[in-house]
Design brief:
heterodimer, A: about 325 residues, alpha/beta, eight-stranded parallel barrel, 10 helices, 15 strands, about 20% strand, globular, B: about 220 residues, Nonspecific Lipid-transfer Protein, Chain A, 2 domains, five-stranded mixed sheet, 5 strands, binds iron/sulfur cluster, SCP2 domain-containing protein (chain B), SCP2_sterol-bd_dom (chain B)
């Protein structure tokens, strides 16, 4: 069981969201560059190198740890953009760089031995030998665990590798595949979530309204049809409804968001170091509300789950695989 | 703060009241505000819109006019146009939502764009990337209702904060009354729907029982 409270790691897609996160009580804020090195590479989102350096400064001044996500896989033959961004982070004094690629981790360890490295969820390290390998080879200090583990499995992992910190997602959108290994959106659009940084890139998403019915499409694929008044979900292939054996159904997952707030004591008992909020693509209102609620929950206060309900995909919440089920 | 989405709202009534007003008159009245917004807001959007080009139309539900936002590699132009289909407005993207939802999205206490979309309060047509980029640019610029009131020329601008406070009180009262009216109108429909749902569930379980009997 942790003696110190778990660190709350919050998302920021813009400098304004970064301010909102700190204002709401974030212990750490993660953000990234406005380019393909970022797994939330959406138009108009993220930080220019100048904004990023200023964001790091703001965090330090206001007592939050700045973490920079460089969490896509570099191109074969040209990883210069990824390396450049690691160098910028080291120079600007980032509190940690969150990365997934072994080549880049090797570069960062060698070139910037003092730069703290966290292993991104995109690397999908979910067992003790894998975590030990990243620790020994690249001096990885913290692992962000994929959302495919139960609390018991997390406890076993933290006990097996006690010198590597663990960070778990506690709130936000769900990616149901072992992260970093899903090719569905890439298949539909030719743009890879893992190399270009966008699952269901906006340029390929279209919505059509016919009366009260809304259809979402990704490239040439129809993903979903929402009936009158039915809450909508993200236009990602894993949340689509498909015809299987003559029946239309959510084949992979019902659209809903992760809310593991009720499991905070279990995470603390399992030795988890940090709790992460998904949602760098979300607005300031989401960041402010969710961070405030979680901060109160970590402090042991009773919180109202309905306060965050409006921010959840299709209005639904799940504790995901943490409690042994997706739903 | 979560916002429930009401279709029957004071914002819709305002739209209906505006219907008889000719577009030309509305454009002349709005021009100084639009110019003020371009002047004050344009530079704050920074480079979040750079490389993007096209017209985005924001259509408050039930209103006769839409705000046309022309983006050209970071530069911004605003105008009022007749609300119509996306194609007829010459827009590569259109966003339709109740006036209340659009203003709530500019508020830190309101809903973010994703939440409004999940609640089906926000409808997006056409090029989703332009909509997203503008949303992030506005949010990062801290754009809000204050920018609109700040762009209203003197002497109206000076009197606006007080008028808005009064307007907000009237709006809140009207929202409550209209919600009551809407609930009263929809109550019989909801009852009928619940009855139909229960009937469907009974039929489905009957079918499953029959199928199981046949299989065994
Ligand atoms: S399609 Fe779903 S599972 Fe695959 S990367 Fe996108 S969000 Fe994750």
């Amino acid at each position: 069981m942790n003696a110190v409270p778990m660190e709350l790691v919050c998302p920021a897609g813009t400098p304004a969201a970064l301010d909102a996160a700190i204002e709401a009580g974030a212990d750490a804020v993660y953000f990234g560059f406005r380019d393909r090195t970022n797994a939330r590479n959406f138009p108009g989102l993220n930080f220019s190198p100048k904004e990023l350096a200023e964001g790091i400064e703001t965090c330090k001044r206001r007592g939050a740890r700045p973490m920079i996500a460089i969490n896509t896989y570099p191109d074969a033959g040209d990883d210069s953009l990824w390396r450049r961004n690691v160098d910028i982070c080291a120079e600007a004094g980032a509190g940690a760089v969150i990365l997934c690629d072994m080549g880049l981790a090797g570069y960062a360890t060698k070139k910037h031995p003092d730069l703290r490295l966290h292993l991104s969820v995109q690397a999908s390290a979910s067992n003790a030998p894998s975590v030990r390998f990243y620790r020994d080879a690249f001096n990885i200090r913290r692992v962000v665990l994929p959302r495919v583990m139960t609390v018991e499995e997390i406890a076993a992992l933290t006990a097996a590798v006690p010198d590597v910190e663990t960070e778990v997602f506690v709130f936000g959108g769900l990616c149901v595949m072992a992260e970093g290994r899903c090719s569905m959106s890439g298949y539909a659009t030719g743009i890879s979530p893992n190399k270009d940084g966008a699952c269901s890139p906006a340029s390929h998403v279209r919505y059509e309204e016919q009366g009260e019915i809304m259809t979402s499409r990704l490239g040439s694929f129809t993903l979903n049809r929402f009936g009158a008044g039915e809450a909508a979900g993200y236009p990602t292939p894993c949340k689509g409804r498909y015809r299987v054996h003559g029946r239309e159904m959510h084949l992979f997952e019902d659209p809903c968001s992760l809310d593991a707030t009720p499991l905070l004591p279990a995470f603390a008992k399992a030795g988890v170091t940090a709790l992460k909020v998904e949602g760098r693509q979300r607005g300031k209102a989401y960041v402010a509300q969710v961070v405030k609620n979680l901060k109160a929950a970590i402090a042991g206060q009773v919180t109202d789950p309905s306060a965050s309900r409006a921010f959840m995909e299709a209005g639904g919440a799940t504790t995901g695989v943490y409690s042994g089920t997706w739903h | 703060m979560s916002q429930s989405v009401r279709t029957f709202s004071p914002g819709l009534l305002v739209g209906l009241l505006l219907r008889p007003v000719p577009l030309g008159v509305l454009r002349i009245a709005a021009r100084p505000v639009m110019d003020g917004l371009i002047r004050d807001l344009g530079p704050r959007l920074g480079d979040r819109l750079s490389g993007l080009k096209g017209r985005l139309a924001i259509v408050p539900t039930g209103h006769p006019v839409a705000v046309a936002i022309d983006i050209d590699d970071g530069a911004l132009d605003l105008d009022l146009i007749e609300a119509d289909t996306r194609e007829a407005m010459g827009a590569v993207a259109a966003v339709r939502a109740p006036l209340e939802t659009l203003t709530a999205m500019l508020d830190l206490e309101g809903m973010d764009g994703d939440a409004s979309f999940f609640a089906r309060a926000l409808h997006i047509e056409g090029d989703t990337s332009l909509v997203m980029a503008l949303r992030y640019a506005l949010e990062d610029a801290g754009a809000g209702v204050d920018d609109i009131t700040g762009a209203v020329p003197w002497p109206f601008g000076a009197a606006l904060p007080h008028a808005m406070r009064v307007g907000q009180r009237i709006h809140d009262a009207a929202s409550r009354d209209l919600a009551t009216v809407q609930d009263a109108i929809l109550a019989p429909v909801r009852t009928e729907l619940a009855r139909q749902e229960a009937r469907m569930a009974r039929m489905e379980s009957q079918m499953q029982r029959t199928q199981r009997r046949r299989a065994s």
